[in-house]
């Protein structure tokens, strides 16, 4: 089992739009493609309060490549993402890391 840590750095003031997009649109596509979110967080104290951090669970990098690739190429998703950014960009930058649990990790 691996986990993907994704951090979305929003344009100023656009975090509410990103949260709405995840809640109303993105999670439905995740479900469609079998993408398993573990959790989502916003930053209470830290470098920026305009970030969304979330964790995805994968059986393997091959599973991630297949499911994420299909999601990213979905024409309905592409259109809906464009609609949400018609007035202004939402995400300026994305960071992601792939994590493997240690032998002593409670989350595996």
From TrEMBL:
Transmembrane feature ranges: none
InterPro entries: Dimeric_a/b-barrel, NIPSNAP
SUPFAM superfamilies: Dimeric alpha+beta barrel (SSF54909)
Family annotation (Pfam families): NIPSNAP
NIPSNAP domain residues: 4-105
Protein name: NIPSNAP family protein
């Amino acid at each position: 089992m691996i986990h993907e840590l994704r951090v979305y750095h929003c344009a100023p003031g656009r975090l509410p739009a990103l949260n709405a997009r995840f809640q109303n649109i993105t999670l439905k596509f995740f479900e469609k493609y079998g993408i398993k979110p573990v959790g989502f967080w916003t930053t209470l104290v830290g470098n920026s309060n305009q970030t969304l951090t979330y964790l995805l669970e994968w059986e393997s990098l091959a599973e991630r490549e297949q499911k994420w690739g299909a999601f990213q190429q979905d024409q309905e998703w592409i259109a809906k993402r464009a609609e949400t950014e018609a007035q202004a960009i939402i995400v300026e930058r994305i960071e992601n890391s792939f994590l493997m649990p240690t032998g002593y990790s409670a989350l595996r």
